[in-house]
Amino acid sequence: MFEDLSKRTHFFFSSTFVPTGIVFNFLTILIFQSKSFNGSNIRIFYTALALYDNLALMNSIVFIQLLPSLDIDYALENDSSCKWLMLWRRTVIQSPSWIQVILTYDLFKQVVFPGKYKIEKTAYLICKFISVFFILLSFNITHFWYFLKENKTIVYQKINNQTINSTRVTFTCTSTESVLTVANSMLITLRCYVPFLVMFILNIFMVRKFILTKKNLKKGDSKMRREYYFTFSVLTMNLIFIILFIPWTVWHIMSLALYDELSKSKELRNQMNLFQSISLSIAYVNCFKSFFVNVIINKKFFKVFMHGYLKKSITSVRTFTSSYL
Fold it and tell me: For the whole model, what pTM was predicted?
C-alpha cells in the first residue's frame, strides 16, 4: 500500500505542480525583463534563479519523480549512467539554493554598505552563476563510487495446486555504506543547511539595517522604499526556504538513523519511501516560490504583472471570444 502511495505522490506532484511551476518561472523571467527593472542587477539574479529552478523541476520530471514513478529510471541502464545521473541529479537540485545565497549576498551589500556597493557587470554575474554549478559538481564527486547492485528475489506462485518459484532480478543504483553516508550528508548540507545558515546571518544584518532606517520609508524616499520591497521579498523567500525543507531534512536524518532497520524491514522501507516522496514534493515548491512571493510583496513586480501581462491576456481572450460570438 505504502509503495503504491509513494509512486502516486511522485506522479501527481510532478505531473501537475512541476509543469505549473515551470510556467510561473518563465513568467517571472519575462516580468523581470520589463523596463521597470532597468538599472538594477535584480533582473539578472531572478532570471538566473528561475532558470536554475526550472532545471531542477525538469530534473524532477525526468530523473527523480515522474518517469521513475512509471518505472522508467535511466540511472539503472548501466554503471556509467548510475554514476553520472546521480551526480547530475544531486548537483542540479542543490544549485537553486546557492543562486538564492548569491542574490541574498548582493542585497546584503546593497543594503548594509550602500556607499561601497557597485553594480556588477552582466558577464561577470553569468560567469559566477555558471561556476556555482561546477563547484557543486566537484563537491558531489563521491557519486563516481556509485554502482549498479543486482537484487534477486524469489517469487512463489501457486498454479494448478502446485507451488512454482521464480527469481526476480532488479537493480539499484547505490554504493557502500560509507560512500552513501558521505554523499547523502553532502546533499543535505549543500542543498539546505549551509545555504540557510549563510542567508540567516545575512538576513540578521539586513533586518537590523532596515529597522534603523525605517523612518526613511515614511518620508517618501522612493529608492529606499524600492530597496525595501526587493529585500523584504528576498527575506520572505529565505524564510519559506527553510520551512519547506524541514520535512525533507527530517526524512534524511531518519533514513541515516534507521539505516540497519531499513535493510531488514520492507514495510519500514515503504513507509520511509512514502515520507520521502511527500517531503521531496514539499521541498520542490521552493523551485517556484519566487513568483508568488514577488506578486504578494514586490509592488513593482505586481504592477508589471497586472498591467503588462494579465490585463493584456484578458483583453486578448475577450477579443478572441467576441470574434466568434
Answer: 0.86
Measure the CA–CA gap between 305 and 289, rounded to whole angstroms.
16
Question: CA nearest 6: which of 305, 276, 322, 304?
Answer: 276
Report the C-alpha gap between 232 and 38 in whole angstroms: 20
CA 228, 241, 294, 134 dihedral sign is: positive
- Tell me, what's the pLDDT at 282? 94
pLDDT digits (tens, 9 = 90+) for 290-310: 999 999 988 888 888 887 766
Show Cβ contacts of residue 269 under 8 Å, excluding neighbours closer than 6 positions.
Answer: 262
Residue 125 contacts residue 41 (beta carbons within 8 Å): yes
Burial bucket for residue 261 (CB in 10 Å: 0-12, 13-18, 19+):
exposed
CATH superfamily of 1-143+177-312: Rhodopsin 7-helix transmembrane proteins (1.20.1070.10)
The residue behind cell 521552493 is 286
> Which amino acid is residue 11, in one-letter code?
F
Q: Grid coordinates representing 311?
A: 490585463
First-to-final CA distance of the chain: 51
Residue 154's Cβ-side half-sphere holds a number of Cα atoms within 13 Å equal to 4
Q: On the CB side of 312, how many CA atoms lie within 13 Å of its CA?
A: 6
DSSP for 78-108, please give it. -HHHHHHHHHHHHHHHHHHHHHHHHHHHHHH
Using N-to-C axis directions, what is the helix angle for 222-257 and 289-297, rounded to 10°? 150
Residue where the block lists cell 515520507:
275
The confidence score (pLDDT) of residue 310 equals 61
Please, how many CA atoms are within 13 Å of residue 205, restricted to the half-sphere of its CB?
Answer: 14
- Residue matched to cell numbers 554598505: 113
Which residues on neighbouring strands pair with residue 302, listed in sequence order? Answer: none
d(CA 266, CA 233): 44
Q: Are 43 and 32 in contact (CB under 8 A)?
A: yes
Domain ranges in the chain are 1-143+177-312
